[in-house]
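Quick one, T. Sequence first:
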Amino acid sequence: MTTGGGRGKIAQALGQMKDTGKEVVIYGENLSRGFVREASKQGIKVAQSLDELKRIVSQ
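Structure tokens:
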């Protein structure tokens, strides 16, 4: 899991996915819709609240 926002976070998450072979979730409150949309296009899940993060992780 990585926190925060910005294009650097998407690149970081993609790197983590490649290195570990595991799914990565970006967590951050108040992330822009554009950021969430771009992360989703790249196959990265995004959680914007603790409840949403818990739901994603428990799947």
